[in-house]
From TrEMBL:
It comes from the Bacteria. This is Predicted metal-dependent phosphohydrolase, HD superfamily. GO terms for molecular function: hydrolase activity. InterPro entries: HD_phosphohydro. The keyword Hydrolase applies. Keywords: Hydrolase. It comes from Micromonospora auratinigra.
Amino acid sequence: MAGTTRPAPAESSPECGRLHRVEELIERWRAAAGAAGATDPAAVLRAGDRLLAGWREPHRHYHGVPHLRAVLDVVDAYAGAAGRPELVRLAAWAHDAVYDPRAGGDANERASAELAGELLADAGLPAPAVAEVRRLVLLTAGHAVGPDDPDGALLCDADLAILGADPDAYDGYAAAVRREYAHVPEETFRPARARVLRALLALPTLYRLPAPHARWESRARANLTRELTTRTP
């Protein structure tokens, strides 16, 4: 019926900008899946849409699309250090695909790995590549990476890059995480957060690859220590 067709957004409109950013992200997903050996383009596109829908859930104040994009950008920046950077990119897409702040332990990482396995298998990715993406996703539960695992190092370094941000950006990250746990009373959240911070500080190194280590290690430890000593018991 005349007058019911929705006009295309103007090239300079905010909606058009959002659409372009989404299309750019999906294209990055398709490129990584293709490089990893996916054989079903339609299933690849469905998988990307499914993952992106998860990343856009309204309860994600930190673990949302900006975090996904930031992790992908770090992976791209240091891709030369990886053996199979395309698999690291797929794992970056999947690593917080399931994110429920009410879940305990490593439930989110396990559910994310399971979802990644299903989606990538449906897209025709070879079984060894699917298994490797699942393994990489599971590493993000504790960020404990072996010395001979450059792909795991790259993913975990990218995931933790925010810790090495300038203090204002770090504080914004910490505040966003707190909003994700708004259902948790302060007297419960603070000691739980302190345990997370101490576990990170106890890692032999927060960043395993030489360039991220040189760039972020010192500032990340300063940020974590500052939060631990000023905001938690």
